[in-house]
Amino acid sequence: MSKLSIFFKSLAVICVIVVAYACERDDAEPEIERSKFSRLYVSFEEYQTSNTGRADTNIRVIYPADSSEFKFAMRHISQAEGGATIYFNPYLRHVIQASANKPGRTDTAVYMMSLGDKTGLLTNSNKLGNQAFSFVRGLTYHPMTQSLYVVESQGINAGIYVINRPANKRGHARPIAKFKTPGLETWGAVIANERIFMSNTKADAGIYVFDDMVNKIKLVNKADSSLTIQPDRNLLIKDAQNLRGMAYDTLKNVLAVVDYPNGNETVGAGRVLIFDNFSSLINQAEITPSRIITGAATLLEQPTDVALDTRKDGKYLYVADRRAKKVMRFKLDGNGNIAPDKVIDTQNMGTPVGLALDTRDDSTFGL
To answer: Is residue 331 part of a domain?
Structure first.
């Protein structure tokens, strides 16, 4: 064998080793198991809490969220000037956070962060700005049309704004459709079978159902891409008063929504309403929870968001409680006055207001 041949073979081996190492280690963090894991992103509403005038953090990450050690493993400072609703969809490969947009600080945008495949580490990427986004409390994504639905939950700009291919947008985000919902006050949003569900926070509290939302885009006014709509139904929930965030597990067919009573600030007053076999209820005038997690043992006061482990063998639901300043984990089959399975007290960290859960295995979605 010639020396030249030996040289090229050796060079080829070195190249293979270098490429393999580069693919294996694309950052300085240890690789996580990609086929099965659970990661919970928690949005905090604080801003300007450090000496530099920036938030110490407005996102914290619990990983693994389903392990015996329930604690924050990472933290991040997004571009949001105080966090509100937070959202994750594996098809989008981004975490999205809305701004709290508190009085005296104008921040009418939602912010996208790319996700490290191996680590879950967030990197600030792009801003979706729009003057209408002053009280965004609902975000949901439709993978087939690559469209993000941004819900402005109250006020003169109340409505559902559809942004196509959001990861490609920078700065001003012009919606391809603006569904105006005058007079409505809502919270949260999930899309399933082209229906959008949102909490109705008014006196007739329940779940708003908007049917066939994908095809409604064809009906918008071509001049300004707008259409005034009303919900097709309101699934009234008796005794509900302050419905907030919701989560829908289509695999188990379970919807959960959090609620708390007016003027009751006692520990245990907050509630997690759970509807089993939810798809069978969506044409009814009034719906009744299959189970309600509430009572002194739960520690719930004013829960603002809930997340469900959507894996086939998922065991937990998670709650962010704004007043109690706690992030709690309950058994998914829980009912009544039960203690949380795990609790993180955030009194010294900030106020948790939103949850986004990334759970993956063969039953959901794997990168």
So the answer is: yes
The domain tally of the chain equals 1
Token pair in block for residue 106: 């104008």
Terminal C-alpha separation, the chain: 44
Task: Kindly report the length of the chain.
Answer: 367
For 82-137, the pLDDT digits (tens) are: 999 999 998 998 999 999 988 777 899 999 999 987 778 999 999 999 999 999 99
pLDDT, residue 363, reads 55
Cα torsion through 165, 171, 172, 177, rounded to 10: 10
Using alpha carbons, select from 332, 348, 329, 272 the residue that is nearest to residue 304.
Answer: 272
Quote the pLDDT of residue 79.
93
Mean pLDDT, the chain, whole residue set: 88
Whether the link from the prior residue into 175 is cis, omega within 30° of 0, is no
Integer-rounded Cα radius of gyration of the chain:
22
| Residue 227 near residue 216 (C-beta atoms within 8 A) | yes
CATH code where residue 173 lies: 2.120.10.30
| Nearest CA-CA partner of 98 in 145, 135, 48 | 135
pLDDT at position 307 is 98
Q: Is residue 19 part of a domain?
A: no
Parent domain of 121? 37-360
What are 44-96's pLDDT values in tens digits?
998 866 666 566 789 999 999 999 999 999 999 999 999 999 999 989 989 99
* Rounded Cα distance, 8 and 152, in Å: 61
Q: Looking at the domain assignment, is residue 8 inside a domain?
A: no
Structure letter (DSSP) for residue 336: B
